[in-house]
Specification:
This protein is mainly α and 563 residues long. Strands 1-2 form a two-stranded antiparallel sheet. Strand 3, helix 22 and strand 4 form a beta-alpha-beta unit. The longest helix has 32 residues.
Length: 563
Amino acid sequence: MSFFDTHLLNVVIYLPLVFAALVLMLPSTEHGQVRAITFVGMLLDLAFGVWAYFRFEPSGAEFQMEFRVPWFQQFGMSYHLGLDGLAVSLLLLTVFLGPLVVLASTTYISHRIKEFHLALLVLQTTMLGALASMDVLLFYIFFEAMLIPMYLLVGVWGAEDRRMAAVKFFLYTLVGSLLMLVAIVAVYFVSGGPGVRSFDYGTLYNNLLAANQQLAACTNGPEGACASLTGLAATLHTYGPWMFAAFALAFAIKVPMWPVHTWLPDAHVQAPVAGSMILAGVMLKMGTYGFWRFAIPLFPVAAQAARPFLAVLAVIGIVYGALMCLAQRDIKKLIAYSSVSHLGYCMLGLLAVTSEGATGSAYQMLNHGISTGALFLLFGFLYERRHTRLMSDYGGIAKVMPVFTAAFVIITFSSVAVPGTNGFIGEFLVLMGTFKSTLPLGFGAFATLGVILGAAYMLWMVQKVFFGGITHRENQHLRDMNLREMLTTAPFIVLVAVMGLMPQPFLERIAPSTERYVARASVGAPGAPQAKDDQLRVEVMSLPSTAAAARPSVPAAPLAVRE
């Protein structure tokens, strides 16, 4: 591994923080310089992020560009970074949105401009750090740190009820996260004795692997077979479901899944356009990513037991979110509830535990960031002109804003999964994987109903806002998109077409992660095929310390160390 590969992730993560320091030194009155420096910082971060994406080799090691140094080593903590196929794809989405969010806010934000851009840069670092963290405690630190700048974005620069929405968002996510912290500490202590305990993801997972396999064998065996369990397997049998529940609740709130979704519409409606774009584009994916990376692989037996219940919640979220969209008259709230429905597909694909379902789930995470992020962006442009969110205040604006209308319709096609757009690939794979899974056929049938309802509410909204006669004089002289707005929107439209017509380059990087996720999630599944050893184990970089080498390994699940 080259010096550049080793330090590339640190550059991507902390470059926004370097530019935040530069912005901090500027006078608050230098609005142009603040915006320019923030935009340049985000643009450079995009360049390094794209570099990291193309440095990732799908046929190489599971985690690449690793960086690991001791950090409170006596407690098994290390500063450990690395990316697999899913993480590097979400990292690309995050750095892609960065400069576009700055452009989108150029005229939208008119007060406390310096503080606003500082919050954007700090938030970028925390999101990237969470995606790259390979130490569970380090992930938790970044996961929690995201709350502060997002709370400020909603609470300071939001709409009329911004404080209520910000407090609701903060309390919901904080409560779930604190429960997850308790579970992290618990699994750390039960996973091994002194010298073996570790917060490192690879070590922690490998320490639990043999016990999870024993627990799966007894769970799927004859009645009473679990009575003879001892050691870690017995501990997981008793406390594993509770630890899984704590992880699952924290991530379910972040997704958000029904019924812990109620913070999301308020946060989206009250947030400025930048906050809505980041929230929909990246932060909601921290929930699905958390299920994929931590909750399900660490506790596969408990996850299998909870799988039907979680799948029911995912399907309810799909249909409920779509029905709520049909009931909305507020455009921004409609787009917000559509996220509840779309993220339900991501969760259903994960819970199908099939290669098609998991691949579709991962691809849909990217698609949702593109399509829903673009919808919030475009509505932000419209809101700047009319300062109203109600559909009844529009109508017929396609006559005066033809370029804007064309862009909105293209993104709408992506959101409703029209063939040829990126949305179609993800939802098709999720539905295929669900029908092929061991879940009852009704899950796939109700998820398909969500596709139909999705087309209904989005096309109904487009018809009400853009077509028909102009019934309000205020809409007769609306200006069409300017150059800045077109340049901000164009990358989204390009990606809608590229990801819809040529998905293979993106799927190639996701595929190895999908295979490993399905193998690890299937450990507790009755009748699941025996996975290969290299699919179940997690390979990690060794610590540059003799103390790390002196730690005893776990005979049942040896840690594969790559020099």
